[in-house]
Amino acid sequence: MNLSRKSEAEKPSRQRGTHSVEERLNSEIVQMLELDGRMPFSEIAQKLGVSEGTVRNRVNAMKDAGLLRIVAIADPTAAEYKADAMVCLKVAPGTTPHIVAERLGAVPSVVYILWVTGRFDLMVELVCDEPDDLATFLEEHIHGVEDIVDAEVMLGLKNFKNQFLLKRNWEQRSKT
What we know:
The chain is α+β, with helices and mostly antiparallel strands. Helix content is 36%, strand content 17%. The protein has helices at 21-35, 41-48, 52-64, 97-105, 131-142, 170-175, and strands at 83-91, 110-115, 122-128, 148-155. A 4-stranded antiparallel sheet has the order 2-3-1-4. Helix 2 (41-48) packs across helix 3. The longest helix has 15 residues, at 21-35. It starts with 20 loop residues before the first helix and ends with a helix. The model is unreliable at 1-17 and 165-176 (pLDDT under 50).
């Protein structure tokens, strides 16, 4: 039995900044599905020069591994929301951004919460079906609430680019 070690020349090498053929192929498949989640595997295969079975197997493997989920995305501007606003929040002493984020995350109109550095602690995006819903949200969840000491509200006027997924009720939908 020969247990000799492979020489350095025989070992597979991986250059810094490069991806394996498999990783590149997976990435290219994902990029195509990001543009059109309903693109047929046969079309993806033709564009990438691989078999339809290869695409199907890779997509299924990425799904099984939890690396890929194909979902429908609603664009707030296309859905004709009446108000889109960003609210920057300063959290009160004695509480944490995580606690406030959990509380606000339960509100259906909140679609994005980011812990940030700088003057504020949290940046929250919400979309409202009716203009009065924004005022109601601010009254009920922001102003006069003990865990927030300061808020700056910025109403969206025009959306020039949006490549983020809407997260509204994501947890509820993914469990059904």
